Amino acid sequence: MGDQPENLAAGQAERHGPHHAGHNTEIASVSIYTDSLKEHGGALSALRGRSIDQDVGYSTVGLRLGTIWHLHDMVVVPHASAAWQHAFDDVTPEAAFLFASTGIGFTVTGVPLAEDSALIDAGLDFALGRSMTLGASYSGQIASDLTDNAVKGRFTWLF
To answer: What gap in Å lies between CA 47 and CA 36, rounded to an integer?
Structure first.
């Protein structure tokens, strides 16, 4: 979606260029494996932990949109995407430990991953010439019990 035309439309009024719309389908798997651990020292607080082997899968389905606008002698590339992401398998990370001195065990449970969430991304890229681009975008993940937001800026200079 970030195609840049080879020449800028200098001195022209606002003109819209090629439009792009497409779908996005992804499947991913994330695996975490750690060996067991045994701390030494700290007679009362040394820990032992079992190995961890956890997997989580993701499927994502969405749409992407983009176009190219020629504004006088500048090229502007707006882009946006929206998707639904589903996490499956083990969405709550856990680790089991015990105190080496007493053998008393406990489990540490991490923050659960969102099972179903909306992924949103929107931004603008500005061609500052043939080799420089300035861009800004918003990206977010929104679920019933999770919100993750980011604003990003970027400058690219090809040489």
So the answer is: 11
Specify burial of residue 47 (Cβ count, 10 A radius: 0-12, 13-18, 19+).
Answer: middle
H or E element that contains 64? strand 52-72
Contact indicator for 51, 97 with CB cutoff of 8 Å: no
Q: What is the pLDDT of residues 44-89, one digit of tens each?
A: 889 999 999 999 999 999 999 999 998 888 899 999 999 999 999 8
CA distance 88 to 92: 10
Look up the pTM and report it. Answer: 0.71
* β-bridge pairing 132-143 and 146-157: antiparallel
